[in-house]
Amino acid sequence: MRHILLVWCIVCLDAVEPLHRYNRRPNIIRRIELGLEKIWSHVGKKTCPEQYHLYLGDGGPFCYKIVTEFCKSWTSARELCLVEGADLMVFTEKNFLEFREMIKDLYNIHAFQCGPYAWVGATDAKTENVWMFVTGAKLVVNSVLWANGEPGLGSSGRNCGILDGDRLDFFMVDENCMWKAIPICQIFLG
Ligand SMILES: [Ca+2]
Question: Which N-terminal stretch is annotated as signal sequence (predicted)?
Answer without folding.
Answer: 1-18
